[in-house]
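Objective 1b: paired records.
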Amino acid sequence: MQKKFSKRITVLFLALCFIILSYCLYRNINKAIQPRQQEVQIQEKNEKKVYPNLANYSNVSILVSIKQQKMIIYSGNQVIFKTTVSTGAKDSPTPTGKFAIEAERGDFFYNEESSEGAYYWVSFKDHGTYLFHSVPTDCNGNEIKEEAEKLGTPCSHGCVRMSKEDAKWFYENISEGVIVSIH
């Protein structure tokens, strides 16, 4: 009887060891095959940003996080740029989903209906309706200070706002067809 009991304990112990070992191996293998993302520090306001040369990267894509009010640019699974943006206000939300950068772009626009303009716009939905662009300006191209101070909060009419410097780099470097995911 004691021998049977001892055998059962040994079998249970070995089974437990096998389960623990399998779990550890599974976790290590999973970590090894999962892509590792490198975090890019967001520069302080007074610090000069370093923009990546996209010619050095392939498989570029853009992620806009509405919750975090951040735009992250990837090369494959590697983060190559991250910055603060403003997405749509509650009554005029930024569309969510998967899009592609469209052909329409320009260095300035002004909308008389909203009395706001912006520099360096790039369309991502409905061919000029939903854009990436700078913080708003007046009709003369002067940045509207109150609007610029809202960067990092959901306050746009549905577009994705960013600093003028970020918008200029985006306009000059992001190609038509680059995939944009917004969630």
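Objective 1b, second protein:
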Amino acid sequence: MSSEPLEPNQDVIIPRSRDRLGRPVYKAQLTRTDNQSEKVALVRQTAPLPVIFIPGIMGTNLRNKADKSKIWRPPNGLWPMDDLFASIGALWTWYWRDAKARQRLLKAERVEVDDQGTIDVGQSGLSEEAARLRGWGKVMRSAYNPVMGLMERRLENIVSRRELQAWWNDEALSPPADQGEEQGKVGPIDEEELLKASRYQFDVWCAGYNWLQSNRQSALDVRDYIENTVLPFYQKEHGLDPEQVSRMKVILVTHSMGGLVARALTQLHGYERVLGVVHGVQPATGSSTIYHHMRCGYEGIAQVVLGRNAGEVTAVVANSAGALELAPSAEYREGRPWLFLCDAQGQVLKDIDGKPRAYPQNQDPYEEIYKSSTWYGLVPEQNAQYLDMSDKKESLRVGPRDNFEDLIDSIAKFHGELSAAGYHSETYAHYGADDSRHSWRDLIWKGDPTPLETPGATLNDDENGTYNSWFRRGLPTIVQGPLEAGNPLDASGSGGDETVPTDSGQAPALAGVKASFRHGSKGKGQANTKRGYEHQESYNDARAQWAALYGVIKITQLADWHPNDKGGT
């Protein structure tokens, strides 16, 4: 802003701000009677376009339904000091929780969304009250509030007096290919598109959800949130005409598993009040990382909270439809194997029929891996003890493994229906594809399995990915890929973002969505000269932010409820 003094009769633009509920307001200051400057308020006709952010698994705060006690509050980092103490507190609390305690606490039917988490409004221009009203306190603050604040600020300041503002006049206009777009079907944002978008009032909301339950049910919960909270707000608090509200739609911006929720909402439930969808780092066909976690536990400091071994992870994940829906589907890697049993030299073993012991052998991971109780199954027999650790078993008529297999059947059904339903017609996606971000693309058991397959053998599983014995060395252990004898033609899907392998991240592009941005060493364009981002922190990367805003602007061109739009009132 210029520091030059105003001319005596120069117009003064009254800045637009937000009140405590996030509604636009204009506040003018009184001046001396001899100051004849015109005070100009650049008032827009009201036409809200809510942007609904849907987080990934474990990204929503959860509390106990009965007593409202905090159950899940993911640590936000080590700074400021409050976050440091909160992180230490979370580590200390979860350190003492064994598999049984975790299972008791993290049951889908016992928890609900907790909207009382800490909030970072950043430079959004919103008050904390307004941000909380819009659901910002439901999610992991450090991973999601910054990008929500950035979107709120930038979408609020696209054009002033028909001139593009700062970021929009520079970075936003760059060719999509420079930002890693890989399909070549879309062009740059142009000024006319930005002028149209600037007529709308973008309000960023957040739809947290119970990530332990099925994504199919979470989609219904998001629908109810839009219908019963978001849209009624504009009639009640903005005074919009009911007819205009009835024509409004929303844009969904998702992170990770939130993409499955959004797809279930639009494609399985047929919800029509979604104008378009932006997917970020979606495990579109699943992620083999979940197998690693259920057999080895998590790695690094995160393991204290998320689970240090197979028992602590299996006790929760094996009872969570939402988590299991992240497992590789039959379409993952186009049905090719991803679990390999290898000898000590890294060569794939063969079964008694001479077929490579590479699973799934017949494009059915549900029967071949997830239901299998063999030593390499998702829940081998020795880990069945973690399926139901309650003092009073859930059912006296069927066993825990029967319940688990029924759950796997429901997962297979969900995967099949989601694959057949495809994507919303206005879908934009971005994902990490970096070879330096190991994402457990190939799950390899390396070692001699003969002792484990001897009838009556006692299996000593350390629950961190290794079988051992006092009398035998060289038993199978899980090792990092890639497969030594892998197919070089299959290398396009290598790498990822440390959680979602490139194979799964690129699936929307292969399905023909409007645009797909590949970020990292496997991507092209000027923006990909640096390393790809890590999964959880992806929206704190400028490339993911650019791709999300690009998608929002492109989708907005379909909006038609502004009074000046064709068909508007």
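Residues 1-43 form one domain. The two ends are 37 Å apart (CA to CA).
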